[in-house]
Amino acid sequence: MAAPGDAPSEGMLWGGRFTGGIDPLMHQYNASISYDSRLFKEDILGSIAFARANAKSGIISNDDFVEIERGLHEVLKEWEGGHFVIKSNDEDIHTANERRLGEIIGKNIAGKLHTGRSRNEQVVCDMRMWLRERIREIDSQLVALVKVITGRAESEIDYLMPGYTHLQRAQPIRFSQWLMSFGFAFMNDVERLRECLKRVNKSPLGCGALAGNVFNIDREMMAKELGFDDILWNSMNAVSDRDFVTEFLQWGSLFMQHISRWAEDLIIYSTQEFGFIYIADAYSTGSSLMPQKHNPDGLELLRGKAGRAFGHMSGFMMTQKGLPSTYNKDLQESWEPMLDHVKTISDSIQIANGILSTLTIRPERMLAALDPFMLATDVAERLTKLGVPFRETHHIAGRCVAKSEELGIPMNELTLEQLKAIDSRFPDDIKEIFKYESSVEAKSARGGTSRSSILEQIKVLRAMLG
């Protein structure tokens, strides 16, 4: 193990109080530049806004501000052009940018950039700005997925399939009804994400380390320049609050739960036993041993990534649970879950969109999977319309199921005489009930699986999308 003192604290933003060096491993353990460097743009824009506010309040001169702004734009160009060189003492993006600014415009002027500002407010400002833009990107990607769902639901509305409870065939539905069930779930996710954005998009800049800013800085002006909707109104809360990260992680965990369940259905439907759909080769793999295999790896990874997303959320919540108030270094642990969560969610939505856009429907297999037993409820409902109490009709339909099982024939092959022997109140046209299309079309109340109801659902969902 390296001895303390091998890595100097000179050059660190906090180094003035320290006379000895820092353990190299501690330097590495403490540093966040390996991942927070991707927030270079947010950090530079926040620094420009802060310097502008300091110039307005007279803490730095206008000439100094002009030079700081010029230098920061030079730093930004280096990052964007891939030319920025990270040095060993650049422990985070703030240190790196300020160090480079000093090299460009001189340390004397660059040293005024941080006047009245703490990294405690700076880091969370960068995080909020970065996450805000990623949320908007994810929103757009999720809306695109819902549009694919509504498009396929409309174009494939004539395909019938079994609907399942307990993974047992229950009642006939339209394939579009299944699609739309997830369309509305994902639309709820869109709405929740937009609510989350409201709490992300608030500015902590101008709160200092925890007690506030002594130079009467214009926080509202900075917030407006940086695109925030509002400021955070308590300085202690502002520098320590990571609820916006936790809420986003919670949102992502719930969304990925929906994606996982959607993927699980499609995995089942793609098996040879079901054969309802075929997953495009672009989202499948084969076997290194068995050449006949066509594995739905894209869907399985979506299902697996749901656990990863939940892990981000639960891990960070445990980090926070015992922290004292205001800023603690533990909060650095919010970075990597947030960054990885964004990538996991964004990639997953795009993969899901690709899978859904390219999968092939096999309506003949769906239709073949329908079973007359699935119309037992329709039999009961037909008698109910004739005035027989439903609890009684339920038992009558159950005896019809039992009779067909006893005879070893499908329920629709029971003769009218056999049905009337079970209950004399069966009408002469009861055999007409054994039609899947009629069963589906009978579910015409709003939200049901009839053609008109699904078309109404599509219209409602598209209106929600705006």
From TrEMBL:
Gene Ontology cellular-component annotations: cytosol
InterPro entries: Arg_succ_lyase_C, Argininosuccinate_lyase, Fumarase/histidase_N, Fumarate_lyase_CS, Fumarate_lyase_fam, Fumarate_lyase_N, L-Aspartase-like
GO terms of molecular function: argininosuccinate lyase activity
Pathway: Amino-acid biosynthesis; L-arginine biosynthesis; L-arginine from L-ornithine and carbamoyl phosphate: step 3/3
SUPFAM superfamilies: L-aspartase-like (SSF48557)
A Pfam family this chain is assigned to: ASL_C2
Enzyme Commission numbers on file: 4.3.2.1
Domain Argininosuccinate lyase C-terminal intervals: 373-441
Catalysed transformations (reactions): 2-(N(omega)-L-arginino)succinate = fumarate + L-arginine
Leading EC class: lyase
GO biological process: L-arginine biosynthetic process via ornithine
Residue ranges annotated for the Fumarate lyase N-terminal domain, each copy included: 16-311
Family indicated by similarity: Belongs to the lyase 1 family. Argininosuccinate lyase subfamily.
Protein name: argininosuccinate lyase
Source organism of this protein record: Trichoderma harzianum CBS 226.95
